[in-house]
Design goal:
The complex is a heterodimer of chains A (about 525) and B (about 240). Chain A has about 525 residues and is mainly alpha-helical. Helix content of chain A is about 80%, strand content about 0%. Chain A has three domains: about 240 residues, Orthogonal Bundle (MetI-like fold); about 200 residues, MetI-like (MetI-like fold); about 55 residues, no CATH class. In chain A, helix 2 crosses helix 15, helix 4 crosses helix 6 and helix 18 runs antiparallel to helix 20. The longest helix of chain A has about 35 residues. Chain B is α/β, with parallel strands linked by helices. Helix content of chain B is about 35%, strand content about 25%. In chain B, strand 4 and strand 5 form a beta hairpin. Classes of the chains: A mainly alpha (about 525), B alpha/beta (about 240). The interface between A and B is large, with 31 and 44 residues.
Chain lengths: ~525, ~240
């Protein structure tokens, strides 16, 4: 039996172990990303100067940037629409309860998992070498991502549908198609629309950076201005991007919130029938218009497409012949990516615990502070880390440190937003029960809400770690460290055997991380 | 007439849900199946329209062995047999009318119904069915705006729209309060008496079963314990069933 004394000693030991362990990992990863406080501090004036210069945006540049911006939005919209539609079909094919044949999920499932591990910037980089510079490769890359995200988000939802719901149509003598049309599709409609907007939010962010590898959109001029040190132009672009992303997020939030309420009641069977007819007329018009738009916006000739497809086949064949002698470099690159991701997750995560206290409205010392911080946190997570890394180049030079800091800031933004929401939904009961003992608000957080929600926090951290590792593999494309540097050089030099090996390496790493984090999350609950 | 002969159902190879059930259901009857949860009531009902496939035994519907049927033939047989679930299983987002029209699917070509095209008589049947369950006023409301009892009556209307000879009901009132439960059971009784449709219902509430059913089948551990007219059943039979 443990005595109270034992307990106190053990608890102290465990606390020390935790702190020591975290410090150890932190120093290790800090070493891994070449963390150098002196370099950061001495770089501060430069970064500050950059921000100052960005405060005077070149407004006349808007007229040149606007077409590019519209192209970016178009890319995001077209690829999201196409990708989600394909993704819904793929999800229906691979969900256990709706699949036409049991073998389909077994074959398609692992394939989709493999493809999901590869960041879309890598898709875009490869596709650009196949189909040449322009928005076509970017759109394909975004569509692939959209399909994969849709399947992931939707398949589990379909699988949790009540079996009796499907029985409801089956038991009247309905065929498989009728079950799909009258039970499954209405049941997933709302969720699918919500998925559409989630994917759109992701794709508009991705679309802004695809230009870095020449895959169209505003990223292309962003990259050019960076290389020409036109920070006034850059500022214009960043403001435009910020407003666009904000607008899309707002529309998405509004639609997702009001989805459930939308319903037009009918008064007679005749008007019901008319509504059905109008609905189909609407669908037909939408499909025709969509197809027309698609054919106009895909700027590629059939000759170019065929040429691309044949060279694509050659590339795939060469990629399959993995160059195994390249493994040491692969491991080196992966390790640096993991260091970047771990460093960013740790610093961002710890920062988020502290910042969340001030951001969640039920723990924050003042409601005004809470509101200001919420806006600030949203600002932090608006920009893709790869763009923020560019700003850090100015201070600390290219390399893993810039990447790690950019990713850390993004992590801080996302984690604070998510965790402060967890704190808010944890409610005030625990907090009140502790405040009644006469403790302070801070202590009610430390001894009540924090231990209560800690498992949620860890699970959020693990999700973020997965996503950070994925992002860290692409940071190298602009020179911010990690395996992306190797990838982009080998894609440029068309060493496809090496690219194949690198992609397999990334996929393996991602699968290992996903499985481990899944296991930890399960054990936690 | 539905005739069940020596029926076995095994879900996960180890624990059989039904172990040799033999029972007949005649036209126009109101039969209750009672027993503890896990006694196989639900499984028995689901084998009667082929939602669950037995591992052994026969289900003869008008002489056709349902367990042998597949595809089109199975679907044609199913539309003669209505099924009402405990959890209603309405499509929440669709209107009441659309939910009732689902009952007509067995009579539609899959392509036409995919585009939501129904015949004039389908609409008429849907209206009549809603009238029978007393919900004409709710025709154009959304499924999720109804109360539990109303949802169950919509489910019954959907079943009526398929013009069945038999209605199977799996614990139709278990999720309802007493009052709504009574309205639903009265609806079943009326359908049996006016339309001559036979009703086979699973119930865990013995009092309710005694009040509404002509005949009671007691299931215990996947076997038939008794099968008698309601008035012939003694309290000892019931005690034996639940011990």
């Amino acid at each position: 039996m443990t005595t109270l004394r034992d307990y106190i000693v053990k608890k102290k030991k465990r606390n020390r172990l935790w702190i020591l362990g975290s410090l150890l990992i932190f120093s290790l990863t800090a070493y891994g990303v070449n963390f150098d406080l002196f370099r950061i501090v001495s770089g501060l004036p430069d970064m500050f100067d950059l921000v100052l210069r960005m405060l005077s945006p070149e407004l006349s540049y808007i007229s040149e940037a606007l077409p590019r911006l519209l192209e970016t939005i178009e890319m995001a919209l077209v690829s999201t629409t196409l990708g989600v539609l394909l993704g819904i079909s793929a999800a229906l094919l691979t969900a256990r309860n709706t699949t036409p044949h049991v073998m389909i999920p077994r074959i398609l499932g692992p394939l989709l998992t493999f493809f999901r591990t590869i960041p879309n910037l890598i898709w875009a980089a490869i596709l650009v070498t196949i189909f040449s510079v322009g928005k076509f490769p970017g759109m394909i890359a975004l569509t692939i991502t959209a399909v994969l995200i849709t399947v992931k988000l939707l398949r589990e939802y379909i699988e949790t549908l009540n079996k009796n719901l499907l029985y409801g149509v089956e038991s009247v003598g309905g065929s498989k198609i009728q079950v799909l049309r009258f039970a499954v599709l209405p049941a997933i409609f709302e969720h699918s629309l919500s998925v559409y907007f989630i994917v759109l939010e992701i794709n508009i962010r991705s679309a802004t950076i695809l230009g870095l590898v020449g895959a169209g959109g505003i990223g292309q001029i962003l990259w050019r201005d960076l290389n020409h040190l036109r920070y006034d132009n850059l500022a214009t672009l960043i403001i435009l991007l910020f407003l666009t992303i904000l607008m899309i997020d707002f529309i998405s939030f509004f639609v997702r919130r009001n989805l459930g309420k939308f319903y037009i009641p009918r008064t007679s069977i005749a008007s019901f029938k008319r509504q059905q007819q109008r609905k189909w007329a609407g669908v037909i018009i939408l499909v025709t218009a969509g197809t027309l738009w698609l054919s106009f916006s895909l700027d590629i000739t059939s000759d170019r497409l065929l040429l691309g497809l044949s060279s694509g086949r050659e590339i795939i064949v060469r990629m399959a012949q993995l160059e195994l002698t390249y493994i040491p470099r692969l491991i080196e690159g992966l390790l640096e990516s993991v260091y970047i991701a771990l460093f960013a997750t740790l610093t961002g995560g710890v920062g988020a615990v502290i910042l969340s206290y001030f951001t969640a409205y039920n723990t924050s010392p003042s409601p005004i502070l809470s509101m200001i911080l919420k806006a600030f946190v949203n600002l932090l997570r608006t920009f893709p880390p790869i763009i923020v890394a560019i700003i850090f180049f100015r201070g600390v030079g290219p390399g893993p440190l810039a990447g790690a800091m950019a990713l850390g800031i993004y992590t801080l933004g996302v984690m604070t937003k998510l965790y402060s929401e967890v704190i808010e939904s944890a409610g005030s009961k625990i907090q009140q029960s502790i405040m009644t003992t006469g403790s302070t608000k801070l202590n009610s957080y430390r001894y009540g809400i924090l231990p209560q929600t800690f498992p949620n926090f860890i699970s959020l951290v693990l999700y973020r770690l997965e996503s950070n590792i994925r992002t860290s593999t692409i940071l190298g494309i602009i020179g911010a460290g990690g395996i992306g540097t190797l990838l982009s050089t080998n894609i440029t030099w068309r060493n496809w055997e090496r690219v194949g090996l690198l992609i397999v390496g990334i996929a393996l790493l991602m699968i290992i991380i996903e499985k481990t984090s899944e296991k930890i999350r399960k054990d936690l609950i | 007439m539905i005739s069940v002969q020596d029926l076995y159902v095994t879900y996960d190879k180890r624990t059989p849900a039904l172990r040799g059930v033999t029972v007949d259901f005649y036209d126009g009857e109101f039969v209750g199946i009672i027993g503890l949860s896990g006694s196989g009531k639900s499984t028995l009902l689901k084998t009667l329209n082929g939602l669950v496939t037995p591992s052994k035994g026969k289900v003869l519907v008008e002489g056709n062995n349902l367990t042998q049927l597949k595809g089109k033939e199975l679907r044609n047989l199913r539309r003669e047999i209505g099924f009402v679930f405990q959890e209603f299983n309405l499509v929440d987002r669709s209107s009441v009318l659309e939910n009732v029209l689902i009952g007509r699917l067995g009579y539609q070509s899959p392509v036409k119904s995919f585009f939501g095209i129904f015949k004039e008589e389908d609409y008429q049947l849907a209206e009549e069915s809603l009238d029978t369950v007393g919900l004409t006023a709710k025709t154009f409301e959304r499924g999720d705006q109804l109360s539990g009892g109303q949802k169950q009556r919509v489910a019954i209307a959907k079943t009526l729209a398929q013009e069945p000879k038999v209605i199977l009901a799996d614990e139709p009132v278990a999720s309802l309060d007493q009052n709504s439960g009574k309205v639903v059971m009265d609806t079943f009784k009326r359908i049996q008496q006016i339309h001559g449709i036979s009703i086979i219902v699973n119930l865990h509430d013995v009092d309710l079963a005694r009040k509404y059913c002509d005949r009671l089948v007691g299931l215990k551990d996947g076997k038939v314990l008794f099968d008698q007219k309601t008035e012939e059943i003694s309290d000892d039979d019931i005690t034996g069933l639940y011990s």
